[in-house]
């Protein structure tokens, strides 16, 4: 899986993508003039961060093999806003679900979708000191928060909505 942005991203979006690159240990490809088709030739799974009013606003995961995509509206906090420093992850991550969400039936559907599109393509390592924790957030469907040894390190991703499409892109 590779990470990229929409064309001509704002500085805040580039910072967010760099945070994801460091935390998820995934390669970041600067989009420039690359088309989606060219990106699909590089990898079969693309994580594209789009913008809304010069802020990261969408998280789209393209699954080229199955000709489908997951689109989410998001709100974010950057790593520097949470912990004030850049945290690098040289290992995998572990994924945890907060107790409030473990028995929530609606959330189980969201988790299965995110697992299928995103989580299964990450380097999961239960011995890692970086944790991606899925937490309850009253204004949003759920939040993705990264921790290092029980300390929030960011970025924080709040998911507002999720849509599944059975085509890679609209014609």
From TrEMBL:
User: What's in the keyword line of the UniProt record?
Assistant: Ribosome biogenesis
Domain Brix positions = 1-170
Question: Could you tell me which Gene3D superfamilies the record lists for this protein?
Answer: Probable brix-domain ribosomal biogenesis protein
InterPro entries noted in UniProt: Brix, Brix_dom_Rbsml_bgen_prot
Enumerate the Gene Ontology biological process terms: rRNA processing
Q: Which GO terms describe its molecular function?
A: rRNA binding
What this protein is reported to do is described as:
Probably involved in the biogenesis of the ribosome.
Question: Which NCBIfam families does its entry note?
Answer: PRK00933.1-4 (NF002094)
HAMAP family tied to this protein: BriX
Put simply, this protein is called Probable Brix domain-containing ribosomal biogenesis protein
Species the sequence originates in? Methanocaldococcus lauensis
At the highest ranks, the source species' classification is:
Archaea, Methanobacteriati, Methanobacteriota, Methanomada group, Methanococci
């Amino acid at each position: 899986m590779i990470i990229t942005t929409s064309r001509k991203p704002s500085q805040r979006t580039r910072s967010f993508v760099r945070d994801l690159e460091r935390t998820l240990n995934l390669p970041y490809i600067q989009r420039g003039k690359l088309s989606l088709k060219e990106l699909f030739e590089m990898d079969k799974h693309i994580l594209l961060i789009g913008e809304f009013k010069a802020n990261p606003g969408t998280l789209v995961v393209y699954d080229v093999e199955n000709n489908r995509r997951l689109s989410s509206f998001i709100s974010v906090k950057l790593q520097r806003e949470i912990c004030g420093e850049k945290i690098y992850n040289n290992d995998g991550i572990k994924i945890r679900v907060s107790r409030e969400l473990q028995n929530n039936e609606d959330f189980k559907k969201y988790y299965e979708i995110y697992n299928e599109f995103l989580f299964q393509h990450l380097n999961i390592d239960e011995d890692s000191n970086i944790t991606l924790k899925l937490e309850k957030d009253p204004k949003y469907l759920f939040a993705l928060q990264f921790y290092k040894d029980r300390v929030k390190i960011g970025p924080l991703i709040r998911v507002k909505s999720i849509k599944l499409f059975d085509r890679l892109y609209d014609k």
